[in-house]
Design a protein that fits this description.
3 helices; two-stranded antiparallel sheet; 2 strands; alpha+beta; Pemi-like Protein 1, Chain: D; 75 residues
């Protein structure tokens, strides 16, 4: 997929990419210059929601939530 850059430096994110990564109006993107390669990374407004579906093993999510609960108790 490709998109053009306007005179103002704007471009369009192709619809299949927006849908796959749940990029919506108002979302933020980080542009990373890696010397010859530019990566565009969406920044999730809600980190937990942003990770939804990223891990197929529900046991890992439960372990993370339990670990965070224990951390809060220690504070």
């Amino acid at each position: 997929m490709e998109s053009a850059v306007t005179r103002r430096g704007q471009t369009v994110i192709p619809a299949p990419i927006r849908k796959r990564y749940h990029i919506e109006h108002g979302d933020r993107l980080v542009w990373l210059d890696e010397g010859g390669v530019i990566r565009v990374v969406p920044v999730a407004a809600d980190p937990v929601k942003g990770l939804r579906g990223a891990v197929k093993d529900a046991g890992l999510l439960d372990a993370l939530l339990e670990s965070r609960r224990r951390d809060r108790e220690r504070e």
